[in-house]
Fold this protein.
Amino acid sequence: MNETRNDPAGDDPFARLSYRRLIAWPARMRRETPFLEAALAAAPDRSAVDLGCGPGEHARLLASWGVRTVGIDRSESMIEQAREHEGEFGAAGPRFVLGSIDELVVADDRRFGAAFSLGNVLPYLEDEELPRALAAVAAALLPGGVLAGQLLNYGPILAGNVRSLPLNVRPDPADDAAEILFLRPLKPDGDGRHALFFPTTLHLVPGADPPVRLERTKEVRVRAWTWPELDAALDAAGFDERRAYGDVERGEFAPDASSDLVFTARRAPR
Ligand SMILES: C[S@@+](CC[C@H](N)C(=O)[O-])C[C@H]1O[C@@H](n2cnc3c(N)ncnc32)[C@H](O)[C@@H]1O
C-alpha cells in the first residue's frame, strides 16, 4: 500500500481532537460487532482494510479476532493514535497507513476480503474523490469482497429537520471532578449537497465559575451523500448486491427518518 498525499495539519479537522476519549468505544463496539461479523462471514477471506480508521479501535477489534487488518487514514493525528495499537495481535496486526482512500494501492497478493468505512467517513470525500476512492477500494478487494459502511443519513439534515447528533458526555481522564461534553451541531450548507458540522468539546466542572468552558470548536464542511448518489457511485465502481439499512442492526432504511445510512455491497467477481 502506498501513501502519496499528506494533508497539512491546518486542513486536518481531527488535529488535536482526542477522538478516542470522546466516544464510548466499548458500547459502540458491542453494538457494531454483529455487523462487522456478518460482513466478514460473507467475505471471501478473513482480512480487512478499515477506511478512515480514525484512532484504530475497529482495526484493533478486527485484528483481535485474527483478521489480518490494515487501517488507513489521512489524518496524521489519528494515525499517530492508531499506531499505539500497531502489531498488538501479531501477524493479524493491526497495521496503519497514513494516506487517502482515493490513493489506496494494494498489491494483488495483499488484497482484502472486506473493507469497512465506519463513522461517517465517506462524507469527507468530495464529488471528484468518491468515484476514485470506490474504484481504489474495489481494486483493493478480492473478487467477491465485501464493502460495509456507515454514514449519517443526510436526508433529514439537508431538510433542516435534524440539527445535532446526540450529546456525548465522557469522564475527563485528567480530572475526576470534570466531564467532557461532545456536541455536534449540524446545518445544511444551502447548496443541497453539503452540510456544515461543528464538532465542539466543552469542559464541565461543577462548582467552577463558569461551570462550562469551551475547549475546542471547529467548522467542517462535508459532502452530504444520499443513498441514490452512493448507490450509483458503488454501481459505477463495480459493486453489486448493494443494500441500504437504517442502522447497524440492518433495520429498514427510511430516507426521511433514519438517523444513519448503513450499506453493504459486493465487489463483482471478475
Ligand atoms: C469521524 S472519523 C471516523 C473514524 C472511525 N472510522 C470511526 O468509526 O470512529 C472520520 C475519519 O475519516 C478520515 N478520513 C476522511 N477522509 C479521508 C480520506 N480521504 N482518506 C482517509 N481517511 C479519511 C478522517 O481523518 C477521520 O479519521
Summary: The chain has two domains: 9-152+225-267, 156-222. The helical segments are 19-22, 25-42, 57-64, 76-82, 129-140, 154-158, 227-236. DSSP finds seven helices and 13 strands in the chain.
